[in-house]
UniProtKB/TrEMBL annotation:
Transmembrane among keywords: no
Keywords: Hydrolase, Signal
UniProt-recorded Gene Ontology molecular function terms: hydrolase activity
Gene3D superfamilies cross-referenced by the UniProt entry: alpha/beta hydrolase
Keyword Hydrolase carried by entry: yes
Any Pfam family hit: PETase
Protein name: Dienelactone hydrolase family protein
Organism: Saccharopolyspora endophytica
InterPro entries for this protein: AB_hydrolase_fold, FrsA_esterase, PET_hydrolase/cutinase-like
Ranges where the PET hydrolase/cutinase-like domain occurs: 39-295
Length: 296
């Protein structure tokens, strides 16, 4: 697979705009080079409330099944990826299912996130009973496979990787970030872990809990996780109103909206998505609690 990096008309325009603005700043003194800078690879049109809550984003998506027999360290899975590469390399995120779950339980996230401009790997674990720390290692193994061995490796910027996970997979995503400081974003979904202190996590983390979770009650899991995280470089806690532990196992617009915005903001460094995260949302009946260190 051959990737053309930032060769499309829109990318050429962006480069011309940045260079022109920088020149104006040098000549007129009114704009600095820092002010002229922008993310290396901005993907997609300017976001709107409608675009980030739509079932699909602006990118066409293809997928590839990865057999557990062809990989080591995890149980295989499915890679979802945008087919339009004209605007450069993509960030990538691996997602782990929860205890007793398979990739089918998180499959909806694959095309929904990929259509917004990410390479997404929904994985199976070695065993459905694997504990969070094992899932952390498997998330890392899946990222290693994505960036080094997969057929889509040339689409991915290996410096912009993140992890997500449901339940024990969510706890695994926190542990993966604790173990790998290079990760750029973490989104645990109704996470479960016996460890409550994740103060060593250095990646921006969005913890999504569920108000009526009886498997991983937010008072024992999501909230302590959030409270233990450092304020810098950014964290948020979103609680789904009236939802159960299994809310992330089916298509959920609130999870998608904030997950997309968080990954765009911190994997892609795309500040166009600040508007959906800061200031915190008010009056949304789907959210029973929202806390964050906004502004980021």
């Amino acid at each position: 697979m051959e990737l053309k990096r930032s060769t499309g008309p829109l990318s050429r325009f962006r480069r011309l705009l940045v260079v022109s603005t920088a020149v104006l700043g040098l000549v007129g003194g009114s704009v600095t080079l820092a002010q002229a800078a922008e993310p290396a690879d901005v993907h997609g049109p300017d976001p709107t409330e409608e675009s980030i809550t739509a079932p699909r984003g602006p990118f066409e998506v293809d997928e590839e099944s990865v057999s557990r027999l062809s990989v080591t360290g995890f149980g295989g899975g499915t890679i979802y990826y945008p087919t339009d590469t004209t605007d450069g390399l993509f960030s990538a995120v691996s997602i782990s299912p929860g205890y007793t779950g398979t990739q089918d339980s998180i499959a909806w996230l694959g095309p929904r996130l990929a259509s917004q401009g990410f390479v997404v790997f929904t994985i199976d674990t070695n065993s459905t009973s694997d504990q969070p720390d094992s899932r952390a290692r498997q998330l890392q193994a899946s990222l290693d496979y994505l960036t080094n061995d997969s057929s889509v490796k040339d689409l991915i910027d290996p410096a912009r990787l993140g992890v997500m996970g449901h339940s024990m997979g969510g706890g695994g995503s926190l542990k993966a970030a604790l173990d790998n400081p290079a990760l750029k974003a973490v989104v645990p979904l109704t996470p479960w872990h016996t460890t409550k202190d994740f103060s060593g996590v250095g990646a921006p983390t969005l913890v999504i809990g569920a108000q009526n979770d009886t498997v991983a009650p937010v008072s024992q899991h999501s909230k302590p996780f959030y409270e233990s995280l450092p304020d810098d470089p950014g964290k948020a806690y979103l609680e789904l109103a009236g939802a159960s532990h299994f809310a992330p196992n089916r298509d959920n617009t609130t999870i998608a909206k904030f997950g997309i915005s968080w990954l765009k903001r911190f994997l892609d460094d795309d500040t166009r998505y600040d508007q959906f995260l800061c200031p915190p949302p008010e009056g949304d009946p789907a959210i029973s609690d929202y806390q964050s260190t906004c502004p980021y």
